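Re-run with default settings, no changes from the original entry. Doing this only to confirm the output is reproducible before filing.
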Amino acid sequence: MKQRLTILTGAGMSAESGIATFRDSNGLWNNYPVEQVATPEGFAANPQLVLDFYNQRRRELLKVEPNDGHRGLAALEKDFDVFIVTQNVDNLHERAGSSHVIHLHGELMKSCPVNNLQKSYDIPPDKPDLHVGDKDADGIQLRPFIVWFGEAVPMIEPAIKWVEACDIFVIIGTSLNVYPAAGLLNYVRDGRPVYLIDPKEVKAYRHDIQVIQAGASEGVKRLTEMLRVAHHV
């Protein structure tokens, strides 16, 4: 029986693919005030500005490919039951071949009606832009299927279950500053190994974490070697 590997990924997972991060020194939040483009209030005040912001993110996503880190995680499914919880809104894990992915913060290639964030629609890659006046079958304006600041994170409960059930927990490319995602570490059962991959120092509040100081692609390669040795696969 395969061991269960649960992985939490953040912006650093996709950075090597060319996806702009939000919090680094040249991150998107330095160019766009959060309040304007990532809150319900910002959307109410200027919906076209918000739609244009995500239209641009979507066009960028369509130009990039999964990196070796994404592909390496998908390859781990050969030896482990792999479950990925991502803070990223891109679809690079799925495009790399990963079978089980929860998106905590929504999905860039989906839209939803403004009055029902539980319902979502795929955005076709050949028509990636949303506009004011784009409505669903009920005549409700569509918005990006993104969890904005101040909104509930509906997928956190399923994510907690995945973490509680894991035999091995891995953290890749996240600062562990954004909650509730950062709190998932609290749900790893005692005695389960925890690995952290990041090129920068990350302040984690557990002393038993095995740190791999590297970017996502190199880090996943080293992780794979370590897992094969430690778990005899």
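The first strand starts at residue 3 and ends at 9. Strands lie at 3-9, 80-86, 101-103, 106-113, 121-122, 142-146, 168-172, 194-197, 210-212.
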